[in-house]
Specification:
With 116 residues, the chain is an all-beta fold. 0% of the residues lie in helices and 55% in strands. The protein has no helices and 11 strands. The strands form 2 sheets. Strands 2, 4, 5, 6, 9, 10 and 11 form a 7-stranded mixed beta sheet that branches. Strand 9 and strand 10 form a beta hairpin. It starts with a strand and ends with a strand.
């Protein structure tokens, strides 16, 4: 199993980034896939999930700003992040699973830095 994130970077507050996660080694389309972040000096925080049925779930702090999506044909997960805030700064991880069921596999992460 491999999950490879990309798309992180440094932006000013109000800017946008799109994260991608390419998965391999398992049947991507039948699993919940999530984005989880870790701010500097803090613990892991679930951000968003998309189950196989395509429904989307978000932590309250990103609702209306972030959009999660998946392309099962390309085994790829996306996170479109708009109106970024300094508090969105952190390492963003792609993970197989969900907050409710737990995570079985993780990517290496991609860094997002939002400056004021």
């Amino acid at each position: 199993v491999d999950l490879m994130e990309s798309g992180g970077g440094s932006v000013e507050a109000g800017g946008s980034l799109t994260l991608s996660c390419v998965a391999s080694g398992f049947t991507f389309s039948i699993y919940d896939i999530s984005w989880v972040r870790q701010a500097p000096g803090k613990g892991l925080e679930w951000v968003s999930s998309v189950p196989p049925d395509g429904g989307t779930y978000y932590i309250d702090s990103v609702k209306g700003r972030f959009t999660i999506s998946r392309d099962n044909a390309k085994n790829t997960l996306f996170l479109q992040m708009n109106s970024l805030k300094t508090e969105d700064t952190g390492m963003y991880y792609c993970a197989r699973g969900s907050a409710a069921a737990g995570y079985s596999d993780w990517g290496q992460g991609t860094q997002v830095t939002v400056s004021s």
